[in-house]
Amino acid sequence: MEITKGDVEKVALLARLRVTEDEKAVFARQLSQILTHVEQLNRYETAGVEPTTTVMGQVNVFRDDVVRPPLPVEKALANAPEREGDGFGVPRIIE
């Protein structure tokens, strides 16, 4: 499947990303390669194959939950770029 620079522009607009003309060409080529590879994978017969989350037989190891006191507000928000009261300030993105 061929991705065009126009397709990249549309996705960049929806994602609110600025991309240069050079980046559009690179992304179009890379995304086309990815979709071509996926098309190749779709040729394999997978009926009756059990879905797996890992092929190595590994399992998640979770630690026991331990109740701890919460962080103080000042420490939790120490690296926040903007604050509103006792929370994060988030820039408005909806016009």
Short recap of the structure:
The protein has 95 residues and is mainly α.
Number of strands: 2
The value of Rg in angstroms is 23 Å
Shape: flat
Question: What level of helicity do the residues show?
Answer: 25-40%
Name the assembly state: single chain
The N- and C-terminal alpha carbons lie at a distance of 34 Å
Number of helices: 3
Proportion of residues in extended strands: under 5%
Q: Outline the low-pLDDT stretches.
A: none
Placed side by side, the strands forming the largest sheet appear as 1-2
Q: What structural class do you assign from the helix and strand content? A: mainly alpha
Report the order of strands and helices. HHHEE
Give a quick account of the main beta sheet: strands, pairing sense, barrel closure. Answer: 2 strands, antiparallel
What average pLDDT do the residues reach?
88
Topology of helices and strands:
Blueprint: H1 5-14, H2 21-41, H3 73-76, E1 83-84, E2 87-88
Antiparallel strand pairs: 1-2
Helix pairs in contact: 1-2
Task: Please give a structural write-up.
By secondary structure, this protein is mainly alpha-helical. 37% of the residues lie in helices and 4% in strands. The chain is built from 3 helices and 2 strands. The protein has helices at residues 5-14, 21-41, 73-76, and strands at residues 83-84, 87-88. It has a two-stranded antiparallel ribbon with strand order 1-2. The radius of gyration is 23 Å and the shape is flat.
